[in-house]
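== Fold encoding ==
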Amino acid sequence: MTPIRGPLARLDRSRDELAKAWLVRLIERASLEEISELPTEQIARELPELISGIVEQVASTNGDPYELSERQTARAAALAGLRSGRDTSPAEVARDIAALQAVLVRALREELAEKDPERFADAVERLADATGAIQAAAVEEIVRSRSRELESQANTDALTGLGNLRNLQSELAQMLETQKRYGHPFGVLLMDIDGLKRVNDSLGHQAGDRLLMQVAMALQRSIRSVDVAARLGGDEFCVLAPEQESAGAVQLGERLANAVVEEVSVGADPPVGLSIGVVSCPEHGDDAETLIDAADRAMYKAKAAGDNVALGEPAPAAEVADESSNGSP
């Protein structure tokens, strides 16, 4: 660590006051709502250390003042989330950090401008580099955060919070790849809600939406943490269950159907339930289209028979392999 001496050392010792001065500048141009949302505890915890890091970079005669340590980068990224509770724009973050730079320049001017103008000019130049690095890290965090949010929105069903069709297709592709490479089986459970149309017709679509949300919550509470639940649209849902062959997937299907009956259908008028088609990979197929098609046929088989769960028919290739192993001509 670079020793900090003279006026810059006094600046470092004043970091708490400088942090307060920066916070005052923030408050002066914030609305009452924004002020109430400012995480003052986080600012009090993070900003003094960040100021110390900036002062150390200004004091250093070696290295690139634009390069931040890992801890400084983390603190800079934290600045991007100061305006919690609403979207923060890169422009707002830039203004916040410009205000921080102004506070530090003013403190430097008080310490150095008259005593050592040349050193003051050099310190301000290095300070601009250091705060520029802070600004770049904070804006980069905003971009990453927005990217994560957009990705989540693109993969999430807006009504239920479960994954959507896009998410299911991606997860299914990964499980198929894992199965082909390592031989790990997985179950596919395709289901729809029996009675949703009656609810929509008799109670309205808002009641139908509530029912969809209740079913989604029942499914989410009943699956394992490694399972993937998705709403495909309308009244159709799907669950992917890693490391499950047919028997285990059927048991999971029964558990899901019972959960909906116990948590959603009790007292419901008209009553609701699930029809679930169950298949497993590779027993019922080794590609997405074959598995979903087999699960869809099994689901309608369950619906026609008035059952909760029906197991799909094995894929033709699996049947041939069965006959060969039994010595059939």
About this structure: Residues 165-325 form a domain with the Alpha-Beta Plaits fold (CATH 3.30.70.270). The chain has two domains: 6-154, 165-325. The radius of gyration is 30 Å.
